[in-house]
């Protein structure tokens, strides 16, 4: 008895250039782009031409696109090119809704490969690609924001049919129209420059460094107390006190001085002269 062979599970190969980048947020970006594209189909085609286009799954992967993506159209920009492709079945369905072309029936739309390509079809693909590329660039600039400040980023120029070259990412959105039995996709090729911008927009805002702590003095330094020094006490007879005149001298001898805080005796200190001033020194805790 022969046991069925099991295929080994492929391992995900990490790209060192993506380490530390918010790649985990690309799924959220795909959902934002799905909403944008669905809104455009709803307002630009479904309501105007009574179409039934819907957006299916949206994927963004690095590597070569699927061979069924369609012919690629290039759009140059100062930041780098973006390439666009639309499957012919979807393009003919749009053409049928907009111009009443022979693709209007489900049977014809489903057999798109049997129909000859026309200049009108080519012009429509170029116009659709130009508009959607501008929309995509605006979405990438906005990141995951619900609203986009500018609905389209200007500066793109159509470059005709081009084959994308070099390392790139493919953003693919499935497009479905049940009324015409159409199932296809629109795809975009993004080079590393555009992906760098996108990932920078997807990165969560960095927390501002906390303000340096203010050097707050400790409680003993902040608590202000008034010290009163009772320098001396001398008893005089009432008669001597009454006979005192201006200029009279009373002989005294300074002993230990009491230091008071709110009339509470806390310390004793010695009075000393320093540069013509009387100073307190040699503090001791009062018993």
From TrEMBL:
Residues 222-280 form the Flagellar motor switch protein FliN-like C-terminal domain. InterPro entries: FliN-like_C (IPR001543), SpoA-like_sf (IPR036429). Keywords: Cell projection, Cilium, Flagellum. This is Flagellar motor switch protein FliM.
